[in-house]
Each structure stands twice: as C-alpha cells, then as structure tokens.
Amino acid sequence: MSHDHSHAGHDHSDDAGFPEPDLVSRPRRNRRSASLRALVRETVLTPADFILPLFVMEGSRKREAIRSMPGVFRLTRDLAVAEARRAHKLGIPAVALFPVIPGKLKDKHASESKNRDGLLQRTIRDLKGAVPDLTVITDVAMDPYSSDGHDGLVGKDGAILNDATLPILAEMALAQAAAGADIVAPSDMMDGRVGYLRSALDGFGHADVGILAYTAKYASAFYGPFREALDSAPKKGDKKTYQMDPANRREALREAQLDADEGADIVMVKPAGAYLDIISDLAAQSPVPVAAYQVSGEYAMIHAAGKLGWLDADKALMEATLAIKRAGADMILSYGAVKLVEALD
Ligand code: PBG
Questions:
Q1: What angle, 0 to 180 degrees and rounded to 10, lies between the N-to-C axes of helices 296-307 and 313-327?
Q2: Which residue blocks in the chain are alpha helix, DSSP H?
Q3: Do the Cβ atoms of 256 and 212 come closer than 8 Å?
Q4: What letter would DSSP give residue 173?
Q5: Ligand 1 in contact with 295 (CB < 6 A)?
Q6: Is the CB of 151 under 6 A from ligand 1?
Q7: Which residues, 6+ apart, have CB-to-CB distance to 9 below 8 Å?
Q8: CB distance 168 to 123 below 8 Å
Q9: Ligand 1: residue whose CA is nearest its atom 14
Q10: 297 to each of 136, 214, 270, how far by Cα in Å?
Q11: Which of 73, 126, 199, 266 is placed for a possible disulfide with 63 were both Cys, Cβ 3.0 to 4.6 Å?
C-alpha cells in the first residue's frame, strides 16, 4: 500500500484553495504492512491468558446444548475431562468449574455443596487425576445449590444474611480443597468472606490453596444465560443487596483493597466488556493479579448477532477479548477460550 499524499493523478495547479498537507506525524506509516503492524502491536493474546469455564453434570458420554450459548455445553464428567485435556494441550492453564445440581438436591442451606463426594468434588478428583498440571478453580457461592437461587442464606424477611452465610461458604471451600481444587473462587460478594475462607483453609491444612476473589462483581443483566445453564436464577428478588451497583467505579477499589488485605491471591472484575474502566483501575492499583470474567451474556450477545448475520461472531469475540487484556487483565475467563486460542496466530 502506498500513501496517497502525493495526490497522484491530480493536477495540483487546479486544486486552488486546498493546501498541500504537510504532516510531520503520520501514524499510518506504522500500519503499512502486516509485519510493521506486528512490530508495533501493544497487546497480544496468548493461550496462557485464558481460563476455560466448564458446566458439569451427572452421567456419562452426554452433552447438552445451552440454548443461549451456541457452542457451549453442559458436559458429563468424562466429557468435561476430555475438554479440559484438550484445553490444556492448547496451553490453556486453568479451568473454572460450575456444577449443574438437580432441583431435588437443592435446599435453603445449600447442603449439597459440602458433600465430599458430590458431583463437583468427583469432577475435581477426575480432573486432577487425568491432568495434574491443569489448575482447577472452583466457584464458592450458594446459588447453584440453593433452593432460593441466591448466593447467600436467605432470612425470614427475604434479606440475605451476610455473617450466617460465611460458615456455609467455608464448608463448601473446604470440600472443594479436600477434593483437590487449586484455587477457590468466592463469587458470592458477602463482606469478609475472603478472610474467613483464608483462615478456614489454613486451619484445615490447605494453606496452599489459593483464593481468586470475585472482587468487583456487578449486579448485571449479563448473567442471564449462565443462570439458564444452571437453573440458578433467584426465586425471589434480585442480587442488588450484595452484588455491586453498575453505576459505581470507586467502590471497586474499596472491594479490591479489602480482598487483598484479607488474603486474596487474585482479584476479579465481572462482567468484563462493559467494565473495562474497572479492570484498568484495578490493574493500576492492585498488588495482586487481576482476572476478568467475560460472562455468559457477553458471549451470547455476540453469537446472537453472528447468527443473524449482523457481524462475524468469531472476529467480534476475539476483539472483545483482546480489549479486556488491553485494559489490563492478567487472565480472562471466556466461554470461547478454546476456539479463541485455536484462532491465535
Ligand atoms: C454465581 C455465579 C454467577 C456467575 C458466576 N458465578 C451468576 C450470578 O451471580 O448470578 C455468572 C457467570 C456468567 O454469567 O457467565 N455466584
């Protein structure tokens, strides 16, 4: 490609009134060829940037499509292990597990979450047995196990009980750690849970298990498809009394400060795409690495537009993911992780 500033083909003497541009700075010079663009590129995605979320269900050799997330499935344990193995071979360092708990096992106290032989715990053991080097991250929150569909314990008046939830989360994290989880990830947004989990883990011989805190988790409409996948939507009310107000930016720094002080090893921003300013703030100030969760609705919305033929979903997802890294994320949870990594050059 050649520059057209020479006005080739035009007769200069006729261009009265249009002064010849005399630009000193021509940023386009650095964009002239693929090799030049590669040379000046500031942000590059690599397989090691990704964490693959997996939805796991009981049974064997079955996968169930999730209507609002084309290409994402609920997998039985054997298939989840196969998918994790594939991701690991591609250089993806970690998976984040989300169990599909049948309604009959859900109750007010999320009792199934502390079952040492539950679906999630067996899946962790299978994964660590099959791919020991893969980092296994597990979610700590009541919602997939709760008959109320809330992340915390629901009191008589419908309020979410902060301090009464903490021991339930601790039991849950201990069951996950005992099964071999490398990192537990509290996504519940109760106050004080990071410190509480840290001392529970330390007290029961799991000082090496890390904590990835969902630090700035917003009360977002972008979680819809996830709640459909796990049938975990709140039965009553919403999550606004514990998840953050999407209007707030400064508050994320307060949460990050607390989580780091309480012993979080990684802090997370969620959702990612609409919260790049928050990722950028935390990346600038956090003493620990920053993760970002490109959530179900971000994935769904791009694929929906792709299905309509309104944009190229694969390219749009890649661009959205690159932007998350550019904003400062050290790692990205993405449902498209495998496909994205396969498309990296
Ligand atoms: C549960 C949890 C949620 C997500 C991750 N952990 C849903 C929620 O808070 O309602 C959402 C992830 C996604 O939408 O992809 N505490």
A1: 150
A2: 34-40, 77-89, 119-130, 162-179, 193-203, 224-230, 250-261, 276-285, 296-307, 313-327, 337-343
A3: no
A4: H
A5: yes
A6: yes
A7: none
A8: no
A9: 223
A10: 23, 17, 11
A11: 73
Cβ pair 128, 120 in contact under 8 A? no
* Residues 99-114 pLDDT 10s: 999 999 999 999 999 9
- Give the CA radius of gyration of the chain: 23
335 Cβ below 6 A of ligand 1: no
- Is 0.85 surpassed by the pTM of this model? yes
285-298 pLDDT tens trace: 999 999 999 999 99
Instruction: Give the model confidence (pLDDT) of 299-345 as tens digits.
Output: 999 999 999 999 999 999 999 999 999 999 999 999 999 999 999 97
Q: Is the CB of 113 under 6 A from ligand 1?
A: no
**Alpha-carbon span 294 to 292, nearest angstrom:** 6
Nearest CA to ligand 1 atom 6: 187
